[in-house]
Design goal:
alpha+beta; Gyrase A, domain 2; 38% helix; globular
Length: 115
Protein backbone atom coordinates (compact mmCIF):
# COMPACT_ATOMS: atom_id res chain seq x y z
CA UNK A 1 0.00 0.00 0.00
CA UNK A 2 1.15 3.51 -0.75
CA UNK A 3 2.52 5.36 2.26
CA UNK A 4 -0.56 6.72 4.02
CA UNK A 5 0.77 10.26 4.45
CA UNK A 6 1.21 10.55 0.67
CA UNK A 7 -2.39 9.56 -0.09
CA UNK A 8 -5.27 12.00 -0.57
CA UNK A 9 -8.57 11.87 1.24
CA UNK A 10 -11.57 11.01 -0.89
CA UNK A 11 -14.96 12.64 -0.53
CA UNK A 12 -16.81 10.72 2.14
CA UNK A 13 -20.60 10.71 1.93
CA UNK A 14 -23.19 9.55 4.41
CA UNK A 15 -23.53 5.81 3.93
CA UNK A 16 -19.95 5.32 2.70
CA UNK A 17 -18.49 2.12 4.14
CA UNK A 18 -16.48 2.15 7.33
CA UNK A 19 -13.18 0.29 7.26
CA UNK A 20 -13.63 -3.46 7.58
CA UNK A 21 -12.03 -5.42 10.42
CA UNK A 22 -9.34 -6.62 7.99
CA UNK A 23 -8.66 -3.08 6.73
CA UNK A 24 -8.53 -1.81 10.31
CA UNK A 25 -5.94 -4.47 11.25
CA UNK A 26 -3.76 -3.52 8.27
CA UNK A 27 -4.12 0.26 8.52
CA UNK A 28 -3.47 0.52 12.27
CA UNK A 29 -0.08 -1.18 11.72
CA UNK A 30 0.86 1.79 9.54
CA UNK A 31 0.23 4.28 12.37
CA UNK A 32 1.49 2.37 15.43
CA UNK A 33 1.41 5.35 17.82
CA UNK A 34 -2.35 5.74 17.43
CA UNK A 35 -4.97 3.93 19.51
CA UNK A 36 -8.43 2.86 18.47
CA UNK A 37 -10.97 4.12 21.01
CA UNK A 38 -14.75 3.81 21.06
CA UNK A 39 -16.83 6.74 22.34
CA UNK A 40 -20.60 6.66 22.31
CA UNK A 41 -20.42 3.59 20.07
CA UNK A 42 -18.22 5.37 17.50
CA UNK A 43 -14.79 3.96 16.68
CA UNK A 44 -12.10 6.68 16.54
CA UNK A 45 -8.32 7.07 16.25
CA UNK A 46 -6.57 8.95 19.04
CA UNK A 47 -3.05 10.00 19.91
CA UNK A 48 -1.55 12.26 22.57
CA UNK A 49 1.39 14.39 21.41
CA UNK A 50 3.75 15.73 24.12
CA UNK A 51 5.53 19.10 23.98
CA UNK A 52 7.91 21.04 26.23
CA UNK A 53 5.47 23.90 26.76
CA UNK A 54 2.15 25.44 25.79
CA UNK A 55 3.61 27.56 22.98
CA UNK A 56 4.92 24.47 21.15
CA UNK A 57 1.61 22.66 21.72
CA UNK A 58 -0.24 25.64 20.20
CA UNK A 59 2.12 25.78 17.21
CA UNK A 60 1.39 22.09 16.54
CA UNK A 61 -2.35 22.72 16.97
CA UNK A 62 -2.23 25.56 14.45
CA UNK A 63 -0.26 23.47 11.94
CA UNK A 64 -2.82 20.68 12.37
CA UNK A 65 -5.67 23.15 11.80
CA UNK A 66 -4.03 24.24 8.53
CA UNK A 67 -3.65 20.61 7.45
CA UNK A 68 -7.28 19.86 8.31
CA UNK A 69 -8.49 22.83 6.28
CA UNK A 70 -6.31 21.86 3.31
CA UNK A 71 -7.70 18.31 3.25
CA UNK A 72 -11.19 19.37 4.43
CA UNK A 73 -11.23 16.70 7.12
CA UNK A 74 -11.29 17.95 10.70
CA UNK A 75 -10.24 16.19 13.94
CA UNK A 76 -11.11 16.68 17.55
CA UNK A 77 -8.24 18.65 19.09
CA UNK A 78 -7.65 19.22 22.80
CA UNK A 79 -4.69 21.53 23.46
CA UNK A 80 -3.31 21.70 26.99
CA UNK A 81 -0.03 22.72 28.58
CA UNK A 82 2.57 20.42 27.06
CA UNK A 83 0.23 18.14 25.17
CA UNK A 84 -2.26 17.91 22.32
CA UNK A 85 -4.80 15.11 22.06
CA UNK A 86 -5.92 14.49 18.47
CA UNK A 87 -8.93 12.36 17.57
CA UNK A 88 -9.84 11.40 14.00
CA UNK A 89 -13.11 9.81 12.84
CA UNK A 90 -15.56 10.37 10.02
CA UNK A 91 -18.80 11.92 11.20
CA UNK A 92 -20.57 11.03 7.95
CA UNK A 93 -20.01 7.28 8.44
CA UNK A 94 -20.16 7.36 12.26
CA UNK A 95 -16.83 5.60 12.55
CA UNK A 96 -13.53 5.05 10.82
CA UNK A 97 -12.89 5.53 7.12
CA UNK A 98 -9.57 5.23 5.29
CA UNK A 99 -9.46 9.06 5.35
CA UNK A 100 -8.96 8.98 9.11
CA UNK A 101 -5.86 6.82 8.78
CA UNK A 102 -4.50 9.07 6.03
CA UNK A 103 -5.00 12.12 8.23
CA UNK A 104 -3.47 10.40 11.27
CA UNK A 105 -0.37 9.63 9.18
CA UNK A 106 -0.27 13.23 7.94
CA UNK A 107 -0.57 14.42 11.54
CA UNK A 108 2.48 12.31 12.43
CA UNK A 109 4.34 13.91 9.53
CA UNK A 110 3.79 17.36 11.09
CA UNK A 111 6.22 16.36 13.85
CA UNK A 112 8.80 15.07 11.37
CA UNK A 113 8.58 18.10 9.08
CA UNK A 114 8.52 20.55 11.98
CA UNK A 115 5.66 22.52 10.45
Amino acid sequence: MTKLAEMQCEACQVGAPQVSDEELANLIKMIPDWAVVVRDGVMQLERVFKFKNFKLAMAFTNALADLAETDFHHPGILTEWGKVTVTWWSHSVKGLHQNDFIMAAKTDELLISGK
